[in-house]
Amino acid sequence: MAQQRDDRLRVDALIVGSGPVGCTFARILVEGGQSVLMVDAGPQLSGRPGEHLRNTFLYQRDVERYGNLVSGHLQRLSPSPPDRIDQPGDLPARIDSALVTYAVGGMATHWTGVTPRHHPTVERAGCIPAADWEEFYGQAEMLLGTRTDLSADSVGHQTVLDALSREYSDLPEPYGVQHLPLAAQRRTDNPRLVRWSGADTILGPLADGSHERGEFSLREQHLCRRLQPAAGGTRIEYAEIEDHTRWRNIRVEAETYIIACGAVLTPQLLYASGVRPDALGRYLTEQPVAFAQTVLPSDPGTAPEQDPDPNVWIPVSEGRPWHCQIHRDLPYDDVEPHRGIDSSSVVDLRWFGLVDPRPENRLLFSDTTRDIFGMPQPEFEFSLSSNDLARQWSMMVDLRRATRALGGHLPASPPRFVVPAPPLHVTGTVRMGTDADTSVVDPDARVWGIDNLYLGGNGLIPTGSASNPTLTSVAMALRAARGILSHTHRSIDNGHRLLSTG
Ligand code: KBG
Description:
Residues 357-477 form the Glucose-methanol-choline oxidoreductase C-terminal domain. The protein has helices spanning 20-31, 57-61, 63-73, 130-144, 155-167, 199-203, 262-272, 386-405, 470-488, and strands at residues 7-16, 35-39, 75-76, 99-100, 146-147, 178-179, 182-186, 194-196, 215-219, 222-229, 236-243, 248-259, 289-295, 312-314, 322-327, 346-353, 362-370, 376-381, 416-417, 453-455, 499-500. The protein is of the alpha+beta class. Helix 1 runs parallel beside helix 9 (470-488). Beta-D-arabino-hexopyranos-2-ulose (KBG) binds at residues 112, 114, 329, 350, 423-424, 468.
């Protein structure tokens, strides 16, 4: 294909990655008067950019079709499947690959929307002040539309809540059995249907072009191939973007560069750009999953398919370093269809475990093998320490306890570790910290030693955590974006416009 004329763009901020975290940066910076260009290597899958794909009647009604759609959007980064298959029930001791979603909106095009706050002492990073955590968690919940009443009217939900509240009556407030926080809302025109929050929810007015202060442009199928550090290496001078829709290269010059394309692809871009601090890719954590299924007793007054899904949570607390969600999700590959049982009465017990961050657990990038975009191929070195293993076995004992309290497991789905099916909660690969030797970004989310390069996403979470990470990453992005605004003091009057100079 013929190469068209190279273009040159000048903006206040370039954001690479259009998932929830990239969109958080965009929303705050545009509201602060900045011109923002956001690029994503993936395609836009919906009319409204980054919308959740389950927001259609078809996929809400037909879980199987929806499952096929999601599998199609989870792409393995390694070129061939892993050569090692654990025995079912084993603890997953390795990560062989990673699954990513190349799309505008990222994984929020199909996520479950589970958005808990991380536990203040067990999970949260100490390098962010406690008061900031409270403030930015509150803002993140508003931005994502997190709520705890989606299943309030469900008979099945109440049954699960009651049974587990009796079993776990000893848990201290506010860590007892409760409604799972979910970024979603019931539709007012048909409350049986749910509108799941996606990246479009975060973009708000930016998603439909009605932003009032700065300028915003979101470009799909635009790959950021490289960031070019200036001489001396303390600033990024420009970014090389490949426009795959018109097959041309664009040089983007920005005041601020924000990379938020996931815990694997963010360090990949740094590596490809020669930005390789010691901690890059190290301290990787992922959450082992213990899983079982049970069946709810049917209520003669309610047809199970009419009853909203249960969504129950037992949060992480001291002495219980695991996150528990009792809900209905897509089946794992090892789950056989339950013969003779109405699938709408089957409930999942999904427990996520905590793994300590250790430098030897890491992501590496190949200098010889390339991924589909021609970027350095990621590889993993990951194992569980004896402490990690002991913690997961305690989690398994607890899963068995909860399963018993709900009347026992389905014969085909006993409590087990699900292998290989990580929850895609990789963290730590570009971790935040106060020490440049053991972290990649400072507490403002700025790459150590590079004044105008900021990162966002789960890779920044420096601690071991068991709860779903998105809310935490959005809270960290809100804090970082406000910091960028106060550093740059830009307003619509003196900022760069989204300008083509080519
Ligand atoms: O059940 C979900 C869960 O809510 C989540 O956050 C993770 O990404 O995937 C799980 C399914 O394996």
